[in-house]
Specification:
With about 110 residues, the protein is mostly helical. It is about 70% helix and about 0% strand. The chain is built from 4 helices and no strands.
C-alpha cells in the first residue's frame, strides 16, 4: 500500500467538525497530539512496569497506536491540501539537504 492508497482509503472515514476550515485543521492536529501522547504513554509504562521488555502484545498495541497517529497525519495532510506522498517527499528532500550540508544535528527549522 502506498501513502496515496492509504490516504484515499482513510479520508473515507473522516468525521469531525469544520472540515476545510481552521476548526477542522485544529481538530485533526489536536487528535494527532493526543494519539502520539497515547503512544508515548504505552512506551513509558513498558519502561516503568516491564523493565523495558517489549512483549509481542506490546508491539501489536503500539502498532495500533501508531496507526492512529498515521490516520491523523493523513487527515492533517488532507486539511492542508497535500497528499501524504507530497509531504513524505518534502521531508526526505529536507533531510537530504541537511545531511549534505552537515546539519542533521542541532536544532531549528532553518538548518
Amino acid at each position: 500500500m502506498t501513502f496515496q492508497d492509504y490516504q484515499d482509503e482513510a479520508i473515507q472515514t473522516l468525521i469531525y467538525p469544520g472540515s476545510g476550515t481552521i476548526m477542522g485543521l485544529s481538530y485533526v492536529i489536536m487528535g494527532l497530539c493526543g494519539e502520539a501522547g497515547e503512544t508515548a504513554e504505552k512506551v513509558k509504562k513498558i519502561i516503568r512496569d516491564k523493565n523495558g521488555e517489549v512483549s509481542d502484545q506490546d508491539r501489536e498495541d503500539l502498532m495500533y497506536e501508531i496507526s492512529d497517529v498515521l490516520w491523523y497525519i493523513g487527515a492533517s495532510c488532507h486539511e492542508l491540501g497535500y497528499s501524504m506522498d507530497e509531504v513524505a517527499k518534502a521531508n526526505v528532500e529536507k533531510l537530504r539537504s541537511r545531511k549534505e550540508r552537515g546539519k542533521l544535528g542541532g536544532s531549528g527549522d532553518s538548518r
